[in-house]
Amino acid sequence: PPPAPPRHFLDLCDLSEAELRHMLELGRAFKAGRGVLATRPLEGRALALIFEKPSTRTRVSFEVAMRRLGGEVVVLSAKEMQLGRGETVADTARVLSRYVDAIMLRTDSAAKLAELASAATVPVINGLTDKSHPCQLMADIMTFEEHRGPIRGRTVAWCGDSNNVARSWIHAAARFGFTLRIAAPEALRPPPELLAWASAEGAVIELTESPEEAVAGADAVVTDTWVSMNDAPGTNRHNLLRPFQVNEALMAKAAPGAIFMHCLPAHRGEEVTDGVLDGPQSVVFDEAENRLHAQAGVLAWCLGVGEAARAAR
Ligand code: CP
Ligand code: NVA
């Protein structure tokens, strides 16, 4: 029989809730040091991490997760690869597939990620594109549920730019069944085709230009930088987004016990004040830590850890 297609982790919208829940369960077991993930199940396997743009959390959390699972890591900067001087993405995928067992890519271009995945014969993981950041959302769902319990039926308020992280929150709302309120200036709303997808999936996404309206009674308030890595810097984004800053007055309008989330890096004094980021409702460093645990779950799922044992039972 032909070999089974690799299990890519490209976007939450490509995966079922059951698959995503399974990865989170693996991630929680890794965090707790129990089960097969505590037995170095990826001994002898290798992961390539390709970065076309900067990273602190994604780079370190993938490297540490893979090593703790017993595997090896090769970290590559695209500009030091032949990829940076014209070798095609597809040829790069074919070659790397002969050396490593999984490839993570961080790139501006979602099309490049798709090309890599279609030519690779090993799993490909999205380490952020200009369109999405699904690894972040796995850590975010884990973090929300640790602090506030099951996310199904709850309300999350996003304030600011409808960027890559916001788009993955939309995918997550559809898959995990929570209400997502997005407060954004009209010019920086999510693309209509993504909203149409979400509504066809039965997701509840509410758009507003009022951050107060978005956060009223919300269980979590989330934001991100006003200028993402692929955005041209300019004052207009700042002017448009200033009214969406998450500050103490805005947080006070959320539900009692609401948490504040941010994928980091934060631009203190812009999208969020020090008072909120360092305040009692902030869970941003738990979120950063959970990148490690959630991605251990993603790696284990992509590489089929524990499945031979399950199938034999
Ligand atoms: N949140 C996140 O992806 O951080 P890095 O850019 O540091 O990887
Ligand atoms: N939206 C940000 C996220 C960084 C982790 C960016 O793309 O720069």
Automatic annotation (TrEMBL):
* Highest rank taxon of the organism: Bacteria
Subcellular localization, as worded in the UniProt entry: Cytoplasm
Q: PROSITE patterns under this entry?
A: CARBAMOYLTRANSFERASE (PS00097)
- EC class name: transferase
* Organism in which the protein naturally occurs: Elioraea tepida
- Its Enzyme Commission number(s) read 2.1.3.3
User: For binding L-ornithine, which residues are annotated in this chain's numbering?
Assistant: N164, D224, S228, M229
Q: Listed GO cellular component terms?
A: cytoplasm
Gene Ontology MF: a single term: ornithine carbamoyltransferase activity
Entry keyword set: Cytoplasm, Transferase
The answer to whether the entry has keyword Methyltransferase is: no
- List ligand-binding residues for carbamoyl phosphate: S55, T56, R57, T58, Q82, R106, H133, P134, C135, Q136, C263, L264, R291
Domain Aspartate/ornithine carbamoyltransferase carbamoyl-P binding, first and last residues per copy? 7-146
Has keyword Cytoplasm? yes
- Reaction equations catalysed: carbamoyl phosphate + L-ornithine = L-citrulline + phosphate + H(+)
Pathway in which the depicted protein is active:
Amino-acid biosynthesis; L-arginine biosynthesis; L-arginine from L-ornithine and carbamoyl phosphate: step 1/3
Query: Family per UniProt?
Result: Belongs to the aspartate/ornithine carbamoyltransferase superfamily. OTCase family.
Q: Which biological process annotations from GO are given for this protein?
A: citrulline biosynthetic process; L-arginine biosynthetic process via ornithine
Q: Which gene encodes it?
A: argF
Q: What is this protein called?
A: Ornithine carbamoyltransferase
The record places domain Aspartate/ornithine carbamoyltransferase Asp/Orn-binding at: 153-302
